[in-house]
Design goal:
The complex is a heterodimer.
Chain A: H1 4-24, H2 28-35, H3 39-58
Chain B: H1 4-13, E1 18-21, H2 22-28, E2 37-42, H3 46-56, E3 62-63, H4 76-81, E4 85-89, E5 92-97, H5 106-109, E6 113-118, E7 121-126, H6 128-138, H7 141-161
Parallel strand pairs in B: 1-7, 2-5
Antiparallel strand pairs in B: 1-2, 3-4, 4-5, 6-7
Classes of the chains: A mainly alpha, B alpha/beta.
C-alpha cells in the first residue's frame, strides 16, 4: 500500500508528464521573438491579437460547398 | 476588448497596491498566448479598498457573465465582505483577486514579484518562477498548457544567459 507522500509524489510526476507533452507543441521561435521585445511591446502584440480574435468572431461564416 | 493601458494607468494613478498575475503577467514575461482580461491581486487594507472603489466605480464594474439588473454595488462593503471578483468594466474585463490558489494574497506574493514599466507606469508583476508555481497549483487543464509555455520561456531565458 502506498503512503500518502508517495501518492502525492506520483500525482506530481503525472502532472509533470502532462506539461512535458504540452511543451512538445510549443513553437519556441515565437517565444524567442517575444523575448526580444520590451514588456510594453509584448502587450501591444497582445492587443493586436485580441483585436484579430474579435474580428474573427465577428466574421460571417459561410458554408463549405 | 480590454484596454490594458487604461486600466493599468487608472489603478496606478489612484495609488492602488496590486500585483499583475495570470495571463497578463505571462504576457509580461513573454507569453504569446491570448488573454482577454487583466488579473490583479490587490492588497486588502481599508485604504487600498477605498482606492479601488474610487478609481473603478466610475467605470461601471459589474459581475462578468451575470444577468443584468442584479443589485450589485461596487463599494467598500462589497469588497470587504468578498474576496475575488470577476468583473466587466467599460475598460474591459478585470479580475480583482484577494488571494490566488497556491500563492496567497498580496503580502505573500510581493516578495516573489518584480517591477515592470508599462505604458509609462511602474507596477508589480508576479515573477516567472512563482507564476509557474501558482498556475501549477491551480491545476486546470488550460493552466497546465500555460505552464508548459512559461517553463519553455524560463528555459529560453536561461539559454540566453549562458
Amino acid at each position: 500500500m502506498k503512503s500518502k507522500d508517495c501518492e502525492a509524489s506520483d500525482a506530481r510526476s503525472s502532472i509533470d508528464d502532462v506539461i512535458e507533452v504540452y511543451k512538445r507543441d510549443i513553437d519556441r521561435t515565437l517565444l524567442r521573438e517575444s523575448l526580444k521585445l520590451s514588456v510594453e511591446q509584448r502587450f501591444e502584440a497582445l492587443r493586436e491579437l485580441q483585436a484579430f480574435a474579435e474580428e474573427l468572431q465577428r466574421a460571417p461564416r459561410t458554408k463549405s460547398p | 476588448m480590454t484596454d490594458f493601458a487604461a486600466l493599468l494607468r487608472l489603478l496606478t494613478r489612484e495609488g492602488v497596491e496590486f500585483i499583475l498575475v495570470g495571463g497578463a503577467a505571462a504576457t509580461a514575461h513573454g507569453s504569446v498566448r491570448l488573454t482577454r482580461d487583466l488579473d490583479i491581486v490587490y492588497r486588502r487594507t481599508p485604504e487600498n479598498l477605498a482606492r479601488l472603489v474610487a478609481c473603478l466605480a466610475p467605470h461601471q464594474p459589474y459581475l462578468r457573465g451575470a444577468p443584468p439588473g442584479l443589485p450589485f454595488h461596487f463599494d467598500r462593503d462589497t469588497l470587504q465582505r468578498g474576496l475575488n471578483f470577476t468583473l466587466v468594466t467599460d475598460l474591459g474585463a478585470l479580475d480583482l483577486l484577494g488571494e490566488i490558489t497556491g500563492g496567497g494574497g498580496f503580502e505573500e506574493l510581493l516578495p516573489h514579484s518584480i517591477q515592470v514599466t508599462l505604458y509609462g507606469v511602474e507596477c508589480w508583476c508576479l515573477g516567472l518562477k512563482h507564476l509557474i508555481d501558482v498556475k501549477r497549483a491551480a491545476g486546470r487543464p488550460r493552466d497546465l498548457e500555460a505552464v508548459a509555455e512559461l517553463e519553455a520561456l524560463l528555459e529560453e531565458g536561461k539559454r540566453d544567459t549562458h
